[in-house]
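Researcher: Let's try something more involved. This one mixes different molecule types, so please make sure each is placed in the same coordinate frame as the others.
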Amino acid sequence: MVSGEPRLAVRADRTRCCGSGNCASILPEMFDQDDEGLVVVREPYPDAGLRSAVDQAVLLCPVQAIEASPAEPVDARFRFGG
Ligand code: SF4
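Model: All components are placed in one shared frame. Result:
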């Protein structure tokens, strides 16, 4: 089902990650940790309905390694493509 709200684009800078695990605790369906404890983004384009939980993960990352922004509309990339 299409919600009408743009999806989010979530990125994590693994070079900054200190392996606290806060993000994976808050949103285990979106974030995981590799064998070294560094963040792995499992779902980089979550539904906008997860916005408040994503914002919490951004706020509670102790090294500001997570960024979230509205994703570019997928339709626009194809509608005006050559
Ligand atoms: S909250 Fe930040 S430092 Fe902790 S695992 Fe996630 S990205 Fe890494």
